[in-house]
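Hi team,

Filling in the usual template for the complex we talked about on Friday. All components are listed, including any nucleic acid strands or ligand strings, so the model treats them as one assembly.

SUBMITTER: L.P.
PURPOSE: interface mapping
COMPONENTS: three
RESIDUES: 462
SEQUENCES:
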Amino acid sequence: MGKIADRLKKLNIELPQAAAPVANYVGWVHTGNLIFTAGQIPLREGKPVCTGKAGADVSIEEAEEAARLCAINAIAQAAAALDGDLDRIVRVVKLTGFVNANNDFTQHPRVVNGASNLMVEVFGEAGRHARSAVGSSSLPLDVTVEVEAVFEVS
Amino acid sequence: MGKIADRLKKLNIELPQAAAPVANYVGWVHTGNLIFTAGQIPLREGKPVCTGKAGADVSIEEAEEAARLCAINAIAQAAAALDGDLDRIVRVVKLTGFVNANNDFTQHPRVVNGASNLMVEVFGEAGRHARSAVGSSSLPLDVTVEVEAVFEVS
Amino acid sequence: MGKIADRLKKLNIELPQAAAPVANYVGWVHTGNLIFTAGQIPLREGKPVCTGKAGADVSIEEAEEAARLCAINAIAQAAAALDGDLDRIVRVVKLTGFVNANNDFTQHPRVVNGASNLMVEVFGEAGRHARSAVGSSSLPLDVTVEVEAVFEVS
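RESULT (copied from the run log):
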């Protein structure tokens, strides 16, 4: 068992099947040493588990949990790109977190921390990434957060 | 005639001149094997052809058509980067679609499909890309959608 | 003294210490020949200096000035990545500017020009970048603008 697979097991995280997009795009593209994932939403078994505006319809804690699920789904895409061998991930390069938020929301970083913390739990120092956290007026399926990732791989 | 130029002709798509930004930025940057385009908006002959909020001021179908035009404009940028030789495009790596949308909009994927479908019509399997679709509270010139692209080139 | 350090001095720009994120992410990641920065906000000495919606709470000119500060902060991140040797920057590849804006705002390009102009002042032709400018319903700490950057380095 790989090091990262082992780590996921210790964290009790079971990677889902990478979500297969239903349109003319894909969940990941591997180019050179980089993997770009599609924007990941808090889907579990194909269903959105957290919808509505962060801090309004949904608590910050719930939104953070949703961001964590987005990150897990991003790792699932990387796993699909690497035939399951997550030990080939050298670095989490970049996360961009789009938070479904009203005009007066200011706590986007706390929400996206759910994704950032998960990456560091799983990959350790290699999980530390550059990050942007911004507000979106709305998101697909009314999900609370969407996270896209760039990974460096060997 | 190149393979992709031929394909564009069969699709009756005439690439515009790549839009020249009017400020201190450029339409594309080629770095290593990647081309990053500037965010493309639904301009035709220098004029925005689709403005307003998707699903409110503008129908989903019109917004999707606008996203298609953004994708054509992104290909025009890539053509400028490659001195017209679009056969050097190995892969459409990533599209990010920002949809001008009210707080309750949820159909961003359908809008951005206009861009995704165009890429696959033109590039076939190599046109399948990682994609994010998100809502923006507003966009430049009030356009309905803005799409940026990353291409891998040989 | 390096060429770019000299240029900054002539422009009377003192680079701040790169802001150290307070969460599980970092200000920059260097991968291959690219540096990806975290989203930079108009912080000066750790405090946001421009908050509120562009064109509503804050004038376009103030918002543009804030974008300029974001760009300075992005250069500070690149300097940290390069142990201060900014002459290793070959090209500013990409800027993405998220403008905190109401639904009816349309002048995102003017705001983000503050960042674009700064890059060209500092790096000359190598400062010309691909750019996206979009509206965000809200941003962290209610700042007026957030800018992320990709640099190519030697």
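MY TAKE: Chain C has a mean pLDDT of 97. The two ends of chain C are 18 Å apart (CA to CA).

Thanks, L.
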